[in-house]
Amino acid sequence: MGMRLEIVTPEKRTFSDVVDLVVLPGIEGEMGVLENHADLITTLTPGELRYTKGGHEYELAVGEGVVEITGKSVAVLTDMAVGEADIDEAAVTEALERAEAALKANHLGDEEIATVQAAIQKSMAQLHLKRKRRRV
Predict the structure, then answer these.
(1) The pTM is what?
(2) Contacts for 131-135 with beta carbons within 8 Å, 24 or more apart?
(3) Which of 26, 73, 78, 101 has the most C-beta neighbours closer than 10 Å?
(4) Class of CATH domain 3-84
């Protein structure tokens, strides 16, 4: 039967469908979720979210967020969720270089450092997803 996966960003509902399996990047590593999983609320970290539907696996690069799991659904609230086709590798690489340069400049306050580090993690998640097929 499956479970409903909802992925919502501040801009839009990115995904809504019934899936068989969800694998989330969490603070302590990847977490797999199947139907009838125990109820849980957890933190989402930048990385790769995978889901399986009809025997096919799909992937999205996600940012920070919160995940609510019930026995019948997984609700993901995140600041970023993009598929490989929507990732502009050149733009992401440029953003990553700017963020790394800002960190090296060493003139940022604590809040700014946290913001830049989050941007770096999101950029790395996107680049990993975009480039992983090339390594095969």
Answers:
(1) 0.82
(2) 131/89, 133/84
(3) 78
(4) mainly beta
